[in-house]
Amino acid sequence: MIRPVQFAYNAQTAVNNVFQRQGIEDTVVVQDSAVREFDAFVAKLRDNDIDVLVVPDTPMPHTPDSIFPNNWISFHHDGSVVLYPMFAANRRLERKQSVLHAIERVFLIHRRIDYTKHEAEGKFLEGTGSFVLDRKNGIAYACRSPRTDESLFLEFCRQFNFKPVVFDAVDEKGRAIYHTNVLMCIADSYAVINLESIVESDRLSVMKTLNESGKSIIAINQAQMIDFAGNMLQVENKQGKSFLVMSSRAFHSLQLAQVRKLESFDPIIHSPLDTIEQYGGGSARCMMAEVYLPVNSNDQQQ
């Protein structure tokens, strides 16, 4: 997780992220509020014995969205690190060596795969924002959007041996949903998904794949998606106990029956992220880049 130093509304991403809303607060107030939300969120994760590696952002170059690292980097069991091509030019600056150095102090990196050259071609794939991985079953889900190039997604799936599931999804106004991870979350035995957003011609095939892979489906609606109820992540603590992580806004958008169903699988951790959600257009899942790399046995864990 990246602790922000100059978190702010990013006009470059707002052109196709309808979850962002520019407010009237001073930039210093926004940054201070975002840091408080970030620190409280990290504290809740650590209170549940979840291992969190926090890397502080750097003031220069200015990267207003650095709090969402899962878009530009992903980590895999075989020791691979993947770098992704980003739609917004100022988000490309988030690929800082300081982050990679912090990772290398704790984990082993065996190879780096770099897709960033495709930015020059206007082709983008924004990591585990653009797609959602079912690592257990080797399936990857992606909705097409200006930030998710289908050919690059298929290349990623070939390289990492994932079965691709590609579909179109729109919000209630018919606009393409910019990231798959705002409409669905895949856990080990269940999936939270906004089926309403998936176009009718693709909906049945997505449901069929989820059912055949043994997932219980917990459906959310368009309004709940706007409240970031699709932007969740299942994580494990140091003892191997699973939790479902989301923002408080997402949690409070859920109906009681949905909460009970989710809690039948995993305890829920939620934390207020209102400023981050409003100005950044992302939520809890976007803030966590899960690390599957092998641990460096010489490292003294924090």
Describe the structure.
- This protein is α/β, with parallel strands linked by helices and 302 residues long.
- It contains ten helices and 14 strands.
- The protein has helices at 11-14, 27-47, 97-106, 127-130, 150-160, 200-212, 222-226, 248-253, 256-263, 274-280, and strands at 2-3, 55-56, 73-75, 80-83, 111-114, 131-134, 139-143, 163-167, 184-186, 190-193, 216-219, 233-236, 242-247, 268-271.
- α2 crosses α10 (274-280).
- It is globular and about 45 Å long.
- The relative contact order is 0.17.
- It comes from Parapedobacter pyrenivorans.
- This is Amidinotransferase.
Annotated CATH topology: L-arginine/glycine Amidinotransferase, Chain A
- Give the fraction of residues assigned to helices: 25-40%
Annotation field: number of helices: 10
How would you characterize the largest beta sheet?
A: 3 strands, mixed
Radius of gyration: 18 Å
Structural category: alpha/beta
Mean pLDDT equals 95
CATH architecture: 5-stranded Propeller
Number of strands: 14
What is the beta-strand fraction? 15-25%
Q: List low-pLDDT spans.
A: none
Oligomer: single chain
Number of domains: 1
What is the H/E order?
EHHEEEHEHEEHEEEHEHEEHHEH
- Give the CATH superfamily: L-arginine/glycine Amidinotransferase, Chain A
Instruction: Give the overall silhouette.
Output: globular
CATH class: Alpha Beta
N-to-C span: 14 Å
Kindly report the spatial arrangement of strands forming the biggest sheet: 3-4-5
